[in-house]
Design goal:
It is a single chain. With about 450 residues, the chain is of the alpha/beta class. Helix 8 packs parallel to helix 9. The chain has four domains: about 120 residues, 3-Layer(aba) Sandwich (Rossmann fold), CATH 3.40.50; about 110 residues, Transcription Regulator spoIIAA; about 110 residues, 2-Layer Sandwich (Transcription Regulator spoIIAA); about 60 residues, OB fold (Dihydrolipoamide Acetyltransferase, E2P). It is globular and about 60 Å long. It is built from 14 helices and 19 strands. Strand 3, helix 2 and strand 4 form a beta-alpha-beta unit. It has a six-stranded parallel β-sheet with strand order 2-1-3-4-5-6, sandwiched between helices. A five-stranded mixed beta barrel has the order 15-16-17-19-18. It has a three-stranded parallel β-sheet with strand order 7-10-11. The structure holds S-adenosyl-L-homocysteine, iron/sulfur cluster and FE3-S4 cluster. Iron/sulfur cluster binds next to helix 6. Belongs to the methylthiotransferase family. MiaB subfamily.
Length: about 450
């Protein structure tokens, strides 16, 4: 009988990418993907970015543990950032956990899973943050047939003082362009029409090459792959962002006019303590350049409130900054101390209650801004790639505009994977609502666009 596995994916898009590659390898080995309640093994791809992210995984490990104690199944493989962060403790504390694999050793997992099922515990942690045993496969078996992620650089060397990523994902290394282009070509052959290039800081792509090949070169090369209709990328870093990226965005029609440029704080004093390497003024200059060159662009950002030492005045600067910047969307979070990072031991930690209060205030302000932005789109016709069912019910579909806004649309299965012209009829701060005016089959679109 075929062995069965389930995937339980947390955290960022890099984990989605790793999840899809693991799916691909295991499916090719003859394993069957099922629901976690039937699986022999559950592979948890985990995140450590905030305490809450880890707590979620720990509570799931506990829940699986109760089932494991009565049935002897499923065993758990804990992979990714939290596996690296908690290491052998996970094996010691939880008998249901049989494998702990850091993000840079994910390539070891497929070969050891059968042993793991026979209760042979293994740990592959990233002791040398430069070493890498990757999965040598494109994500051909995906959670979404039309869209795929591709990691273009591993790790991060920026060491923002609040962030655990450099400790759990290891040192920065760019993947070779030929490898990335080959992978995207394979993805297109397998039905992908939209690809998102991933890195913790895509703007430092290529800095470890000696031939001058940079992120803008890669963006152009990827966007010229025949059959691919949309190219996205994330995350940009204001410290390393350069105008050549804007030029490629403006000149290559397949590159979506959407950019996530995390600002993190509106106070220069706090940005300095965060070790972000830019000022609010420099950030605003970049945004102005982008908006001038790509007027239809949607700019989103990330923001942390309650960083150690954030005084009321710093917080006010952040609110003023949000009003000025008019972002389309902001991913906000209360600062969460991460063991081993410099900020966790900085003086003047902000009390939890105060962080919550500030978070509620920024969310209310930004929700209003996002809503106004979205309301202004009512009556417009936007291009939407329909890529799945809406969270509620199968009579509603969802897709994204080139600017990465989620649109909910009544429709049926036939529309999946199609590019549609959609009339925007309503909006909330999170979603647009619309009706399909016309649709193009992906093969039609190819004829028109190529
Ligand atoms: N590399 C990207 C983001 C990676 S983490 C960048 O440089 O922006 C995603 C987001 O999580 C960050 O932008 C930050 O806003 C948030 N984050 C990271 N560490 C955090 C912490 N300790 N507490 C709260 N939010 C955090
Ligand atoms: Fe974390 Fe900063 Fe690296 Fe982003 S750039 S992953 S916030 S250390
Ligand atoms: Fe989380 Fe690791 Fe991504 S900490 S956000 S899964 S890089």
């Amino acid at each position: 009988m075929a062995l069965s596995f389930a995937m339980d994916i947390y955290g960022c898009q890099m984990n989605q990418y790793d999840g899809d590659r693991l799916r691909t390898v295991l499916t090719q080995k003859g394993w069957l993907e099922t629901d976690p309640s039937y699986a022999d093994i559950v592979i948890m791809i985990t995140c450590s970015i905030r305490e809450k992210a880890e707590q979620k995984v720990l509570s799931e490990i506990g829940r699986y543990g109760r089932i494991y104690r009565t049935k002897g199944r499923p065993v758990l493989a804990v992979v990714g950032c939290m596996a690296q962060n908690m290491g052998l403790d996970l094996l010691r504390k939880f008998p249901q956990v049989k494998a702990v694999v850091g993000p840079r050793h994910i390539g070891r997992l497929p070969d050891v899973l059968e042993g793991v099922l026979n209760h042979k515990a293994v740990a592959y942690l990233d002791e040398d943050p430069r070493e890498m045993v990757d999965l040598e496969v494109a994500p051909l078996v995906r959670s979404n047939p039309f869209k795929a992620f591709v990691t273009i650089a591993h790790g991060c060397d920026n060491f923002c003082t609040y962030c655990i990523v450099p400790y759990v994902r290891g040192r920065f290394v760019s993947r070779h362009p030929s490898e990335i282009l080959k992978e995207v070509n394979e993805l297109v052959e397998s039905g992908v029409i939209e690809v998102t290039l991933l890195g913790q800081n895509v703007d430092s792509y290529g800095k470890d090459f000696d031939n001058g090949y940079r992120f803008s070169n890669l963006l152009r090369d990827v966007s010229r792959i025949p059959g691919l209709l949309r190219v996205r990328f994330t995350t940009s870093h204001p410290k390393d962002f350069t105008d050549d990226v804007i030029e490629v965005m403006a000149s290559e029609p397949k590159i979506c006019p959407a950019i996530n440029l995390p600002i993190q704080s509106g106070s220069n004093r706090i940005l300095k303590k965060m070790n972000r390497g830019y000022t609010v003024e420099h950030y605003e200059e970049i945004v102005n350049h982008i908006r001038e060159a790509v007027p239809e662009v949607a700019i989103t950002s990330d923001l942390i409130v309650g960083f150690p030492g954030e005084a009321e005045d710093d917080f006010k600067d952040t609110l003023e900054m949000l009003k000025r910047m008019q972002f389309d969307l902001v991913h906000t979070a209360a600062y969460s101390p991460r063991n081993g990072t410099p900020a966790a031991v900085m003086p003047d930690q902000v009390p939890e209650e105060e962080k919550k209060r500030r978070l509620a205030i920024v969310n209310e302000l930004q929700d209003g801004i996002s809503l106004q932005k979205n309301l202004s789109l009512i009556g417009n016709v936007v291009e939407v790639l329909i890529d799945g069912y809406a969270p509620k019910g199968k009579s509603m579909l969802q897709g994204r505009t080139p600017t990465d806004k989620v649109v909910l649309i009544p429709g049926d299965e036939d529309m999946l994977g199609k590019l549609c012209q959609v009339h925007v009829t309503n909006a909330s701060h999170w979603y647009l609502y619309g009706e399909i005016i016309s649709s193009k089959d992906f093969s039609d679109v190819l004829e028109v666009k190529l």
